[in-house]
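Residues determine shape. Next comes a sample protein:
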Amino acid sequence: MSTLDTPTLLEAIRESRVLAVIRGDSAEHAANAARILFSEGIRLVEIALTTPGTADALAAVAPEVPEGSHLGAGTVCTLEDVDAVVAAGATFVVTPAVTEAVPYATGLGMPVLAGAFTPTEAYEAWRQGAAAVKLFPASAGGPGYLKALTEPFPQIPFLAVGGVGLTQLPEYVAAGALGVGAGGPLVGDGARGGSADELAERARAFAAAARDLRAAR
């Protein structure tokens, strides 16, 4: 697994357009889902700390991450959370809000996708060193809201997360997002013992949509 810095993470998001968000029911199921996602062309995978045994899942998958792909940890809120996921092998962290984890992780050299919704939160996340702002929940505002946020903050990269499916991917990119984070619409029940074949099919569909966006540039 390659060393990850902020420019590398942002370039990976810009190229792949999709961050998979895993919320599993066990370390084993979460790790297996991550492996499938990577194998089907999803380059960015986040395992949320709401998954039982997240550290074990990260540690199991980290040595297997393909070159050019990246494994992160989500729902990171505290300093202790940061320490735990870094030790387990995560190369970036994702927060649900502007928490104490943002300046702490950035101080360690760990890229952060910081959750925010309002203009004030987005600016504060950026001021604290976030690599990008995770607009969350994106579905509460939609692509139009994201576009409005990018206008006063052209220097802030945004990632749309929360209620974002395959059909919304091009809409958010057109509105100015680097990409989207997809949980249910992409992972579904694949990290809870669901069909591996169906998970692989959804992953291929998202990866193909991202390729179409690259081809259209």
Observations:
- The radius of gyration is 16 Å.
- The beta strands are 18-22, 44-48, 70-74, 92-94, 112-116, 132-135, 158-161, 179-182.
- The chain has a mean pLDDT of 96.
- The first strand starts at residue 18 and ends at 22.
